């Protein structure tokens, strides 16, 4: 009888642990959705800012590509998240505003371009790492597929940003 009671107690203690693993994974999916949404919104916002604050046309063209791609990605993310019963933020949070948007609003011209490209390289490297992880670790198969499908576009953005970083600014005629 004692052995049976011990087994029942062990089983009762183990059941919440199984549920906790599933909750952690679902929490991971929710965290990913939040991170991906913030990334998409920040990238689109900074891309729009580049139109007015940027200097070099190649940087502005790159920024417009990011606006288009990240707006499309955000819409796909919303659909996938709704299917998985997860919440998608619809505004840039205070942390991302303070860390990424506010400093860029103060820059103009070549200084904006340089910082923008540096931020795009760092941001896309971080995003690629998170998307790779989610493409294998997500609880939801739809989120795994979404993350896998988004990786080539993120890599294309990273490669383009690195090329812009290597490019020398064109000489401007004296005025």
UniProtKB/TrEMBL annotation:
Chain ranges of the DUF4142 domain: 29-164
Domain of life of the source: Bacteria
Presence of the UniProt keyword Aminoacyl-tRNA synthetase in the record: no
Pfam families referenced in this protein's UniProt entry, alphabetically: DUF4142
Coiled-coil segments: none
Range of residues in the leader sequence: 1-19
InterPro entries assigned to the protein according to its UniProt record, in alphabetical order: DUF4142, Ferritin-like
Keywords: Signal
This protein's name: DUF4142 domain-containing protein
Lineage of producing organism: Bacteria, Pseudomonadati, Acidobacteriota, Terriglobia, Terriglobales
